[in-house]
UniProtKB/TrEMBL annotation:
Belongs to the class-IV pyridoxal-phosphate-dependent aminotransferase family. InterPro entries: Aminotrans_IV, Aminotrans_IV_CS, Aminotransferase-like, BCAT-like_C, BCAT-like_N, Class-IV_PLP-Dep_Aminotrnsfr. GO terms for molecular function: transaminase activity. The keyword Transferase applies. It comes from the Bacteria. GO terms for biological process: amino acid biosynthetic process; carboxylic acid biosynthetic process. It holds the Pfam family Aminotran_4. This is Branched-chain amino acid aminotransferase.
Length: 279
């Protein structure tokens, strides 16, 4: 599948330091072996929270026992190179590293389909479903093609925006492509770090919440807590802080919840500050 627009967008990608036309891209090359990845959002030509993404990429190598390290400065140069060669200053970039069992791993950088919530979805919230599944090594960001296909099918059939994963103990862990926070009496609840992908946005939200005086509880969350909480939201590279208005058949006033509104506003300010310092 050469130059598949499902896998890659824009005109050029980078493989092992070489700039190539997208018609030379083969999707099979990034799925036939274990592929560790990061998705980085570009805003006004600036890779958002780049340092944290690259730290997590190297951490994923260690978690999966690969003796490999990418110099963040070198990868940063390649990211800016990809931005400039495509003249694309507001989109998502995917970094994939695979072939890690060999002396010469492959490093790919390319733009991917980038879908961001509409303003109306921030104002009203989105719907989510519960989905029974858990990832084997949640702290490592690894391409899981079969899992992604199955959960996407469920999301589409329910006309939902996201699936909230539930483990064998009937505990909420994370979203299929996001982290999940629940709010009760202005206290934030989220699953323990060891049970989820430690998202860059998740970490920023926890730090921000503490700075503005909000308590954050990282502990197992039972599905029954969904009936008690005041609101729920998801976090991630593309959605940022997105209120959830419906989980299966349970409605929430998340979009107008004062705690969630405060967090959304504070996170947008963090982004603005980061971009201004690097523009």
């Amino acid at each position: 599948m050469k130059g598949s627009q499902k896998e890659i967008h824009k005109n050029y990608f980078i493989k092992n330091g070489s700039v190539l036309s997208v018609n030379k891209f083969s999707a099979d090359d990034i799925t036939k072996t274990t592929s560790i990845y990061e998705v980085i959002r570009i805003i006004q030509g600036v890779p958002l929270f780049l340092e944290e993404h690259l730290d997590r990429l190297n951490q994923s190598f260690r978690l999966l026992n690969y003796n490999f390290y990418i110099d963040p400065k070198d990868l940063e140069k390649e990211i800016y190179r990809l931005v400039e060669v495509n003249q694309c200053y507001a989109y998502n970039i995917k970094v994939i590293v695979n072939n890690l069992e060999t002396p010469s791993p492959n490093i790919y950088l390319f733009f991917i389909a980038s879908n961001y919530p509409h303003e109306e979805q921030y104002k009203k919230g989105v719907s989510a479903i519960l989905y029974t599944a858990e990832r084997e090594n949640p702290n490592a960001k690894v391409v899981l093609k079969d899992f992604r296909s199955r959960v996407d099918e469920k999301i589409k059939s329910a006309n939902a925006f996201e699936a909230i994963l539930v483990n064998q103990h009937q505990q909420i862990t994370e979203g299929s492509r996001s982290n999940i926070f629940l709010v009760k009496d202005s206290i934030l609840y989220t699953a323990p770090a060891e049970k989820v992908l430690k998202g860059v946005t998740r970490n920023r939200i926890i730090d921000l919440s503490k700075k503005i005086g909000l308590a954050v509880v990282e502990a197992p969350i039972t599905v029954d807590f969904l009936k008690e909480c005041d609101g729920i939201f998801m976090t991630g590279t593309s959605p940022k802080v997105l209120p959830i208005a419906l989980v299966d058949h349970l409605p929430y006033g998340s979009a107008t919840n004062s705690t969630i509104v405060k967090i959304r506003s504070g996170y947008d300010d963090l982004i603005d500050d980061y971009i201004k310092k690097r523009s």
